[in-house]
Amino acid sequence: PASGKVFFTYYACDSGTVQADQLGAVDLDSGVVTTGLLASSSGYWRRLAVIPGQQDALAGLADRSLTLIDTTGGTVPSATNRTTVLTNGYFPDVAVAPDGSRLVVGRSEAGFHGFKAYSTADLTELHSYPLTSQYDPEPGSVAFRPDGTLAVAWQDNLNQYYYLRYYKPGAGTPFFEKRF
Fold first, then answer.
1. Using an 8 Å Cβ cutoff, are 139 and 114 in contact?
2. Statement: the pTM of the whole predicted model exceeds 0.70
């Protein structure tokens, strides 16, 4: 929860036509559900993640942007001035490190397939984890263990294999890789 609420994404529709992609929240104390809180400025919200140690902040991954969302503004959260535009690609998932210092996003775009780490302070790029496959790899899930170990998963689009890699905290090369 952020600011004592659980936030969620949804589509606002009118007669079956999508009007906007929005954030909603459930107040954990009162049970009140509020909708229409914040529309994405670049496509629809794909994922939301709470940032550990920053109880009033969320990371929001949309089609073409990664945004830090401030939830302290009363009933309506606001996008901070910390937004990174993610251009011309596919961005399936986001995960935040247990210490709240960085987040990792799966990215597939011209010239790069893999995962990139960004600072939660200002969204500067910290590190990249490229996928080195000759078969058009498509990033999938990303997650952190409580000890900071990073897990990334992807699919080889030609042969339909699935892969899993683990990185120790701060490491740029994996210590484990498995093909399924």
1. yes
2. yes
